[in-house]
Amino acid sequence: MATVTLKKISKSYGDLEIVHGIDLDVKDDEFVVLLGPSGCGKSTTLRMVAGLEDITGGELKIGDRVVNDVAPKDRQIAMVFQNYALYPHMTVAQNMAFGLKLQRMPKTEIQQKVDEVSKILQLGPLLDRRPADLSGGQRQRVAMGRAMVRTPEVFLFDEPLSNLDAKLRTHMRLEIQRLHRQLKTTTLYVTHDQIEAMTLADRIVIMRDGYIEQIGSPKEVFDHPNNIFVATFIGSPAMNLIPMKTKNGMDGLTLESDSIQFPLPEKEGHQVQANMDVLVGIRPTDMNLAHKDDGIAPQWKFDAKVEVTELLGAEALLDLRIGGQEIMGQVEGKDMPELDANIQITFNTEALHIFDKASEKAIY
Amino acid sequence: MSSFSADTPHSSSVMGRIFIYGILLIVAGYFLLPLLVMVFTSVKSMEEIRTGSLISIPTSITFDAWSKAWSSACTGVECSGLSGYFWNSVWLVTPTVSISTFLGALNGYVLTKWNFKGADVFFSMLLIGCFIPFQVILLPMARTLGFLGLAGTTTGLIMVHIIYGLAFTTLFFRNFYVSIPNELVRAAQIDGAGFFMIFWKIMLPLSIPIIVVSVIWQFTQIWNDFLFGVVFSAGESQPITVALNNLVNTSTGVKEYNVDMAAAIIAALPTLFVYVVAGKYFVRGLTAGAVKG
Q1: Do A190 and A31 contact (CB within 8 A), yes or no?
Q2: Is any Cβ of chain A less than 8 angstroms from the Cβ of B290?
Q3: Pseudo-torsion of CA B8, B14, B17, B21, nearest 10°?
Q4: In this structure, are residues B220 and B274 in contact, taking their beta carbons and an 8 Å threshold?
Q5: Residues of A in Cβ contact (< 8 Å) with B191
Q6: How is chain A split into domains, by residue range?
Q7: Which of A133, B14, B55, B108 has an alpha carbon within 20 to 30 A of B145's alpha carbon?
Q8: Chain A neighbors of B181, CB-CB under 8 A
Q9: 166-195 in B: which are within 8 Å (CB) of A?
Q10: From the DSSP assignment, how many helices (H) and strands (E) are in chain A?
Q11: Which one of B115, B117, B191, B208 would you mutate to disrupt binding with A, by most A Cβ within 10 Å of its Cβ?
Q12: Cα–Cα distances in Å, from B13 out to B7, B20, B98?
């Protein structure tokens, strides 16, 4: 097994730089997910690690070896592609054996490896079939099998589940999780799907426009987003952002907008100062319906009008209007208020996020 | 009422069928008629041709004209039929078709999977090659062949056909390979396959439909070519089209229509054969392309 180290890795096509000197340390056995919208450079980064794209600048290490100029086959990596990229004219067994044959591995050994992997992935009955005769999920498993027979130091996944339907995707996600626990191979996984990232990753790397916006465990990036981009990209439904101003109140700072105001709850080490333009972030899941006798101080209760309701089953999404401000809230399905009802809501003050409007960075 | 409305679409579709097949039969007959006349004439004796009408069915069948066309008809001063020239054409077509198809595949592979700087410009220039008429390149090519010392040789003619065909074969393969996902090549790279290994083991096995298209196209083009043949080859090494022309134009008094017709059919048979054998792949190869995988 191996570590993967990216030091100031950059990629340019002509004058156009699309990955801007990113740093990343992937630990041994770690499952790291590169997450970002399309065009953020995550796939390019992965392909540079694979050796399918030249590295314009910086240093890439797999283990202790600098591999910038090492051919893909000699990097001890295996890759699973979004469209599976199975060789259509070969059977499943031949697909898996192709790489081993090129390594001039003895036939009996190849046979042994293929059998071993096909047992883990339950590919036994499919070995003589061709990719065209397989379902999407089966193809995906064969693609993983082809990667696994190489017993690589690092697995690279490029959006492996995005061609599958929703149900199969959930299933394969669990499968990948199980395999990772079993094989303990360092894994770099590219996706634009935050649920995949949250469920699979030991650490998530969130990228935008060729920069890394934040690196952290799923919990860290969800609870403590560094900036507005991460805050709105992670979490569904997306975080509410309310433009407000900070003022000096009687006992400390207050946050004010035309429609809402409340005191800034004390917290250690924050950088909020008076007279700042800020964006206040509250996740819909951190909002609650207020009741008369819930013991919450009136300054934390806000009058809201229910404009749209969406019952999803266990939960319900509410489009609320508080003064001039539109806010998305999420409540339990059984508590869903009537349309056009006037309600009071409150929110979890510990889950409050504040971002500087100019720099878009978290300051609270 | 219900039976009426159920019947109407059925009977009208039968009428439609009859109409369609009727038209098809007429058109097919129209196109087949010249061939029929040729076949009929080729198995008639000169006596019968002189007395009968052009499209009358032969009263007795004789293959004398065929054997004369094949082995003893005069093409100019030489009187040994088409057989020698037929094999000339075979020896001309075999290397030209295989080499130009192979190089076209290699070109298409490089143009789509190993993108290099200027690939688009290169491809556009190649495309222009498809639109250059035969006549335009006669003089420059003659100069080139002379310079290379290949003027009037079979090797020279082979070279001309390969070069002229490359534009087409490259276009075929390039367009076919565009639809093969690049990830296939990337996956093979990670598996440890190099440039030619990927070409042999991955690309070529997937290319059967387009190889068939390229072979049919090149075969017909080169087998039927007259102009390059008459300009760039001489005497013994001429292809069958040139010999056919000479045979038809060489007459000693009587014009032997039956021999002419038999000779023309002999010259056309190989292309016909290729179409019959590989025709369905031809259509499939032109329309298909997407390799689901």
Answers
A1: no
A2: no
A3: -150
A4: yes
A5: 73, 98-99, 102, 146, 150
A6: 4-233, 240-356
A7: B108
A8: 83, 85
A9: 181, 183-184, 186-193
A10: 8, 20
A11: B191
A12: 10, 10, 47
Residues in A touching B205 (Cβ below 8 Å): 89
Place of tokens 């592979």: B109
3-state secondary structure of A337: coil
Cis peptide before A237 (omega within 30 of 0): yes
- Amino acid B290: pLDDT: 37
Q: What is the structure's pLDDT at A48?
A: 94
Burial of B162 by CB count in 10 Å (0-12 exposed, 13-18 middle, 19+ buried)?
buried
CA A21 to chain centre: 21
Instruction: Give yes or no for a contact between A287 and A330, defined as CB atoms under 8 angstroms apart.
Output: yes
Burial of A278 per CB tally in 10 Å (0-12, 13-18, 19+): buried
**Coil vs helix vs strand at A304:** strand
CB pairs under 8 A between A and B: 65
A89 in contact with B, Cβ within 8 Å: yes
B83-287 is classed in which CATH architecture? Orthogonal Bundle (1.10)
Dig out the tokens for B148 from the structure. 């290379």
CB contacts under 8 A, A 102-141 vs B, are: 102-103, 131-132
Topology of the domain covering A240-356: OB fold (Dihydrolipoamide Acetyltransferase, E2P) (2.40.50)
- Closest CA relative to residue A207, chosen from A236, A232, A229: A229
The partner residue sitting opposite B190, judged by closest CB among A72, A86, A131, is A72
Across the interface, whether the CB atoms of B183 and A83 are under 8 A apart is answered: yes
CA atoms of A356 and A361, how far apart (whole Å): 6
Whether the Cβ atoms of residue A302 and residue A345 lie closer than 8 Å to each other:
yes
One-letter identity of residue A297: A
Fold of A4-233: Rossmann fold (3.40.50)
Among A74, A76, A83, A142, the residue to mutate for chain B (most B Cβ within 10 A): A83
For the record, the structure tokens of B198 come out as 């990927």
- Measured between alpha carbons, how far is B79 from B247 in angstroms, rounded to an integer? 9
pTM of the model: 0.80
Reported as type and span, the H/E element at residue B278 is helix B257-287
| Contact between residue B135 and residue B199 where contact means Cβ atoms under 8 Å apart | no
A-chain residues near B293 (CB < 8 A): 83-88, 131-132
Q: Which pLDDT tens digits describe chain A residue by residue (364 residues)?
A: 689 999 999 999 988 999 999 999 999 999 999 999 998 999 999 999 999 999 999 999 999 999 999 999 899 999 999 888 999 999 999 999 999 999 899 999 999 999 989 888 888 889 999 998 888 888 988 999 999 998 899 999 999 998 888 888 888 899 899 999 988 999 999 999 999 999 999 999 999 999 999 999 999 999 999 999 999 999 888 999 999 999 888 778 889 888 888 888 888 888 888 888 999 999 999 988 888 788 888 888 888 999 999 999 899 999 999 888 899 999 988 888 888 888 888 988 888 999 999 999 999 8
